[in-house]
Amino acid sequence: MPRMGLTRDRVVAEAAAVADEVGLDRLALATVAKRLNVSLPGLYKHIDSLDGLRRDLAVLGVRELTAALGTAAVGRSGRDALFAVATAYREYAHRHPARSAASVRAPDPADAEHIAAGTAAVGVLAATLGDYGLAGEDLVHAIRSLRVLLHGFVALEAAGGFGLPASVDETFARLVDGLDAAFRRQ
Asked: Quick one: which of 132, 133, 163, 180 has the fewest CB in 10 Å?
């Protein structure tokens, strides 16, 4: 019988906190169980496996990130929307590094919940790019370019990959300006 008050959502939330503290690759079910004050077998009453929990973290990360990006874009257009969304992505990655890393996990083709979360995220990015007049394949390529730039930047930043003395914030702003210019030319 599952422990009173312990739910799958609570397990996922605790796992997200643990992963953000220790890193997604170091997430261990034993640590999550200990933090929840349950036995490891007790934890399995709420989750299937470590991989299943990582999938849940991916969905959580996509949903939270989508909400942050959507909030950042409200009332903005063009470069202002692009910069606000890019900044919100970076800030989310700083606050929740493991959730951000998990959010790029591709959904299983049979996982309707994960696919729906991803579709919502793509919708926010498409709306953000709406003022650029992009459509069809051009919009797809623009969304992919934006995702690659943002995820690559935050991954390198999280890994300490920007050791040169110039301002990382300036580099980030220049990258977003470069995307803005590229999107305007299409």
From this structure: 163
Q: Is the pLDDT of residue 182 over 80?
A: yes
Q: Can you list the domains of the chain with their CATH numbers?
A: 1-47 (1.10.10.60), 57-185 (1.10.357.10)
Question: What's the pLDDT score for residue 1?
Answer: 42
Q: What average pLDDT does this structure show over 113-126?
A: 97
> If you write DSSP's letter for every residue of 30-59 in order, what string do you get?
HHHHHHHT--HHHHTTT-S-HHHHHHHHHH
- pTM of full prediction above 0.70: yes
Taking the C-alpha atoms of residue 98 and residue 57, their distance in angstroms, rounded to an integer, is: 8
Question: How far is it, in rounded angstroms, from Cα 129 to Cα 42?
Answer: 46
Exposed (0-12), middle (13-18) or buried (19+): which is 162, by Cβ within 10 Å? middle
